[in-house]
Amino acid sequence: MKLSWLLLATLMLTTFSPMAGAQPAPAPLPHIAFDKTVLPNGLQLILVEDRRLPVVAVNLWYHVGPASEAPGLTGFAHLFEHMMFAQTRHIPRGMADRLLEGAGATDSNGGTGYDQTAYYDTVPSNQLELALWVHADRMGYLLDVLDQEALSIQQDVVRNERRQTVEDEPYGLVREALAHALFPKGHPYHASIIGSHADIQNAKLEDVRQFFARYYGPNNASLVIAGDIDKAKTRALVERYFGSFRRSPPVARPSVATPPITSERRVVVRDRIELPRVFMGWHTPPAYGPGDAELAVAAEILGGGKSSRLYKKLVYENQIAQDVDASQNALGLVSTFVIDVTARPGHDARELEAAIDAELAALREHGPTLREVERARNSLETALLSTIEKLGGDGLADQLNHYNQYTGDPGYLGKDLERLRRVSPADVQRAVRSWLRQDARAVVTGVPGKPVIHDPRPPKARPAAPLAGGGTGAGINAPEAWRAHRPKAGPPPQFALPQGESFRLENGLTVIHHQRPGVPLVSAQLVVRSGSAANPAGLPGLAGFTAHMLEEGTVTRSAPRIADEIAQLGAFLDTASGADASAVSLLALRASFPAALEIMADIVQRPAFPIAEIERQRASRVGDLVQQRDDPEAVAAVAALGALYGSRHPKGYGQLGTEQAIRAVTRDDLVEFWRRHFVPGNAALVVTGDIAHAELKTLAAAHFGAWARAEVPAASTPAPAGTRARLVVVDQPDAVQTALQVGTIGAARDSADFPVLQVLNGALGGMFSSRLNLRLREAKGYTYGVYSHFHYERSPGPFTIGTSVRADATGDSVRIIFQELESLRTAPLPPAELKAARDAQVLSLPGQFETNAEIGASLAELFIYGLPPDYYARLPAQLSAVSAAQVQDAARKALDPAHMVVMAVGDRRRILAQLRPLALGQPELRDDDGQLPPASP
């Protein structure tokens, strides 16, 4: 393999002991072996060979974003990103998505940043040519067939995306106001990337054509291909597909002067929220400029997790904040440093602001300690290395394109780490004094109230712009007949899905190991086969409360000490619960893993459940519940559980439970849940990454061998006793969208029908090219996206269809969902659709095992649900054997619309008027916790 994983594996071999005094000499800096060439037409090509998996990441960046938008066209770069997924001269509308998904593509999407627009796919290595064919036809032949219909649909989709991610998203309007406060009108960073409704709707087809012709030429693009490739053959393929394209006119990099903030700017924004939030923002140096790394370290010191200053003071000690965050957002023209803090119930923005100012003043005056800087650097290094663990998505290929755009060097990783390692306490203090001054900031406060939303109705449909040449638009590149033929796939790559190697300690603890040399990281999960389904009656949320308490102190370690030691190691520790399991998760550098594992073992086996920490967590969970009420999609999901299972069922609630239960939990309840369920015979330690089997055996015995054997609790779940209503409504007056969940009780994880249901779900709503998404998003423009999912659990879990739709499209959206459910029941899948759904499941499997955490989660699933060790080895053949008759039979049994419950969260008045014609019966009204309101006395 050409990528220097062996050199990467030496990174941080002398990493820090949490109690060490002097720091050891730094390890050798990593190096990524890449080839960069420039085609004669200006396309930059960057190749990396990495043969860990038989997959290839294709990552294409166009160096254009809002930084290049014309006045009056905010959001245009993002709108154009959507247009690039329309039809091209040689690929009809929708075909690219169907072909890529059917070929097993994962991480297949696009994204717009302020300075660039990215398009990416991860495909099996034998389908690289297919991905290049698609990306090349978009670059070379989009204009040839671009039409008003495609633009109008995507304008609707993007406006729905704005409603969902800005206007219905808690604090979305507040974040947007921060950008407005930091940058004047006319500045490229003034508007949010998605733009305004008016500008999105006002975009003309001619604007799209001009934008493409100016910015989407090969000389304004860089293509990274990373994975299981032969460099010479791959370069030849790129030259074949991209080499004949004409250059666009030269594109100058944006050069915009940003007026400095010379006196504090203050804005108050009302939003549909319950808890106030304070945002503070500053202009800071551009990406990779002097001061950028120092401010990244400062952000980690101020708001980077439980070891940060703001967390310790505002959340832990004073308990006035629900959550804190700080970030250095590196951009091309000018970066921003942002602090955001949410109030704890009963506290206000003035308290938050005063406390933040006190911490900033202390950092300016005294600077950070050396240990704080070390903790921040270590955490940032681990986070950076974790990004290259994955090839596609936001992984290695994207990181190389990022470095290439901002530094000109795709292999900047080593230099990036080097600049972090050079940061000293004095450097951080100077940067904070220079850039984070009170008179140079914008302060935007979000408070509860009715938001101001400018959402004009779209104009009447415009006639389609005429296309010259009998339906063919004015293209840029000469037609080439051979491009009309889809490339054939190469020989299928051979791949064995991880099976793991298991052993058991004498106390009954199962240990599952998968060694994965390469990036020097190790992921571990300690899972117990008990989650919210084991909650006692009257105490929903107890499993989650217990899991979170594990981090809050042991017999020998306080909560702050745990946070500091984990951060000093550059590790990340988390606890969580689900329906059937609770887990403690750990990510650490290879060299620091033994020390981090000792801390993990301590919190699992020796939690102290201090009263003071219980009360802190109690207040935090009440605050989390308050924030959950602000999110329509979260409310819909919790309401679905209550409607499907009933209030007496432990699975009829979200993981937080209810406020009544949170306030009622006692220390004895928490200790008893831990005592009964966190026992070695009910647990597995799953470890994946750069660690040998013999070493893991030694570590497991050392840290978990003394864990006392205890009786394993019996798992029993009562039958669901859900509502008889078919329509459940949560009223949120004036909501701009309706959050929908359409669901029923589905299947258990060990169901013999699992492969059939997976194929069925893929065709219905599990893929971008699914029936539901093609109709609700691509044909109607009602939504930003829709999904369906079987939540497989130990006992039958819910099947749900979820989406957020334009408020006035609620009724038609539910009608279409029922139509598609019925169509799967009344007619078998056509052969082509069956093959695409089946192949998508089979061929995408390798791409689901890219990271240590993904492998670990899959192996943990085998333990939680009692699946055989060779389960994944047998799964591809089972999926490949699924027939159309089986899919139709499964749909008849599992997806009867008459047994579906519709959960709708939005403006009740508008919802009921639209749903009345569907004859769903009397609606059942629930509150923002998804529960039935108390009966009247």
UniProtKB/TrEMBL annotation:
<feature type="signal peptide">
    <location>
        <begin position="1"/>
        <end position="22"/>
    </location>
</feature>
<dbReference type="InterPro" id="IPR007863">
    <property type="entry name" value="Peptidase_M16_C"/>
</dbReference>
<dbReference type="InterPro" id="IPR050361">
    <property type="entry name" value="MPP/UQCRC_Complex"/>
</dbReference>
<feature type="domain" description="Peptidase M16 N-terminal">
    <location>
        <begin position="511"/>
        <end position="622"/>
    </location>
</feature>
<feature type="region of interest" description="Disordered">
    <location>
        <begin position="447"/>
        <end position="470"/>
    </location>
</feature>
<feature type="domain" description="Peptidase M16 N-terminal">
    <location>
        <begin position="50"/>
        <end position="184"/>
    </location>
</feature>
<dbReference type="InterPro" id="IPR011249">
    <property type="entry name" value="Metalloenz_LuxS/M16"/>
</dbReference>
<feature type="domain" description="Peptidase M16 C-terminal">
    <location>
        <begin position="204"/>
        <end position="380"/>
    </location>
</feature>
<protein>
    <submittedName>
        <fullName>Insulinase family protein</fullName>
    </submittedName>
</protein>
<dbReference type="Pfam" id="PF00675">
    <property type="entry name" value="Peptidase_M16"/>
</dbReference>
<keyword id="KW-0732">Signal</keyword>
<dbReference type="Pfam" id="PF05193">
    <property type="entry name" value="Peptidase_M16_C"/>
</dbReference>
<dbReference type="InterPro" id="IPR011765">
    <property type="entry name" value="Pept_M16_N"/>
</dbReference>
<feature type="domain" description="Peptidase M16 C-terminal">
    <location>
        <begin position="665"/>
        <end position="839"/>
    </location>
</feature>
